[in-house]
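Fold it.
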Amino acid sequence: MKKQICILSLLLLVIISLFACSEGEAQGKINKTGIVTEETRLYSDPGLKDSIAYVYQNDLVFVISKNSKGYYVQMPVMNIPPTEGFIPIDAVSFDTKLFTAANYGVLADVKTTLYNSPDINDVYSTSNGVVKILERKDNWILCGLKAGEGEKWVQADKIKYELEYIDYIDDKNSIFFPLKNR
């Protein structure tokens, strides 16, 4: 009898462990780039009730984690502090084939060459970081630069579509910005 109780207890523990692992994967850390598949809203709360911004089809997002209703994401960082919040699960895809239509990208090199026009001889300067994609023309992309630095052209092969998480600390208040309810 004791042997049967021990075996049943062990079996119950195994079942509980399996359930806990699958639940953790379903509601845990993601930490990768996704693309928004439909216009939606960004919410400040995990219950998706308090809308704080619009998110548009083909926007890239850095998906930090997942709960039962949404992904906790960081928008492409064009200004400090970065914008973070929750978006519905069904509004995000991780299919990298969709990324080439993205509204945002990242300059691939630390010093990516920028151009005044889609002409290899019309060099402006170099830059790095996230860009807003405004137009595609042949093998060129017109980009809106971070922090309102204007618009410049970049060769299409110098744009990548994988975002990185920016862990911003507001030095003035020494708190993590902007949401604490991840």
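DSSP finds one helix and 14 strands in the chain.
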